[in-house]
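Entry:
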Amino acid sequence: MADEGSRNYTSLWSDLHRTSFSQGYLDVAGIQTRYMMAGDQSKPLLLLLHGTGGHAEAYTRNLGPHSEHFWTVAIDMIGHGWTDKPDVAYEIKDYVGHVLNVIKTLGREKAYISGESLGGWVSAYIGVHHPEVVEKLVLNTAGGWTAHPEVMARIKTLSMQAVNDPSWARIQARLEFLMYDNSMVCDDLIETRRAIYSQPGFAASMERIMCLQEMETRRQNMISEAQYKSISAPTLVVWTSHDPTASPEEGKQIADMIPGARYVVMNKCGHWPQYENADEFNRIHMDFLLED
């Protein structure tokens, strides 16, 4: 009989073992951009955008189910993961420019765009300023509306500690910040992020990524009430009961500003509901995306 440890062990590979997927690199206007993708390229494009300091593995539990209906592509955004890290500020417009070029490089004019945390902030900005490229929009525990100094300081401290000392314990602490249940942070996830954070020069990239945790820069990039009200794409706002960055009430404020937006709160989840309760997230997410 298997021991307790093996029964509880989870793996990124077990998340993907029933999924035909590929990973590789796209030349996106000169930026070598790492992707994970699944699904037939004849289907509508669904683009998945991770959060601050994150990478495509945030969506390993979502690629397979969504690939039945979409050409599903998760990327490492500019400055993140295994994607190139040019010496730019990494403000929202920098991420947006990269994402728009990803869509073009994939040969599409429009996409369903779903973003978590920073990815949600980027997605909202695209919905405001580039509505022509958006089929539907999902804002998942999205940044861009609130600016809590204690949260910003916590994110910056944990992130910089993890890149300056990419030890198992530091990486684990950074990932546990995201989760309601810390046992969700599996060895595979820790080692994946440890390898990314150990790249030569990654600490300098993280310093630039952290500019959005500085109040003056953050406020210059935030989405205003008028801008949220201008979003015309059908929008789903997903929040959680235990998000460490903002309360469900703040998530509802975002949904209430966007015309016709749907609002859902997932219980017993932190900042990664798409990973922490993938079955529920996938059901909610696909019901919205597939609805006429």
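DSSP finds 14 helices and eight strands in the chain.
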